[in-house]
Amino acid sequence: MTKKQLILEDGSVFSGEGFGWMGEAEGEVVFNTGMTGYQEILSDSSYCAQMVVLTYPLIGNYGINRDDFESIHPYIKALIVREACDLPSNFRSEASIDDLLNEKKIPGLSGVDTRRLTRLIRSYGTMKGRICAEDADVNQVITELKSSELAKDQVSRVSTKSAYPSPGRGKRVVVVDYGMKHGILRELNRRQCDVIVVPYHTSAKEILRLHPDGVVLTNGPGDPKSVPESVETVKQLIGSVPIFGICLGHQLLALAGGADTFKLKFGHRGSNHPVKELSSGKVAITSQNHGYAVEENSLLSTDFIVTHKALNDGTVEGIQHREQPAFSVQYHPEASPGPEDANELFDRFINMMEEEEVQYA
Description:
Blueprint: E1 2-8, E2 13-20, E3 25-32, H1 38-42, E4 50-54, E5 58-59, E6 78-80, E7 83-84, H2 97-103, E8 107-110, H3 114-124, E9 127-133, H4 138-147, H5 154-158, E10 164-166, E11 172-177, H6 182-190, E12 194-199, H7 204-209, E13 214-217, H8 228-237, E14 243-246, H9 248-256, E15 261-277, E16 283-294, E17 304-310, E18 316-321, E19 326-329, H10 344-356
Parallel strand pairs: 3-4, 4-6, 5-7, 6-8, 11-12, 11-13, 13-14, 14-19
Antiparallel strand pairs: 1-2, 1-9, 2-8, 3-9, 10-12, 15-16, 15-17, 17-18, 18-19
Helix pairs in contact: 8-9
């Protein structure tokens, strides 16, 4: 095995063994607490430019299969684990996690004390890091990390480059792709929606020209303020067509309504986050992956109200427009990976479109 090391910008060093692709990687180091779902995590475009630490100690034991990908091309920078399984065992397994990382040119690092690393991130917040050779100059790497800036073009990297259809016989839904997980498309297809997926920079005029019954704003990576053109598009769509925002789409809807967002200390990434619906008191266990959140006080002067809150830290997990058919959630109702407690939100969106019946000249 090839010895490698993870160097963080605060000077912390974690030694381990390389697996997958043997190149170097640099990015924001974050952690995910899910016990399963590593294939979905690897292929979730919301992890673009990030190196993911998985807190569950054994990763890769059920292998990789063709069905559980959430995107065609993974954008994750690196995977950091305690132990990577060399011999997966599952009737659906077609390859090992080592095979996948090697094929996609994604470095892996195993043998790391992921508990200590996670506690470090929880204490000091997410930080930049680099996976490099065992003999790399630590001080030089730290200096370079401190002077480097995180990429701000993640959405443009992961969004589709051109529009494409996913035909159905039901309501027409335009899906604005900021880094869409395929799970969102699967849920809309299950409900017979006639879906058209469009790039993130598609204008409101172009979207409305497609005569949608509703618009879905998808998940995606990075700071929502890094795509101001998308905020302007959403602002123009509010009141014209029913809107359902998910994760980054939720943050963009809030910004379009005049609210603000902020960066969380270490984000929410995992598949067991409890969220409370304020109107009913119902608690759902949700799948989450975000590093930014909507500032609750900034909603007071807008036309949006808070509908859901995270029970772990009280942050905003859902909003709804007071008058117009527009709502969003910070978590993932399509799960993948994780529980499907919130799957009914797609049905709510369908009902909203049926009630509104948008008219086009």
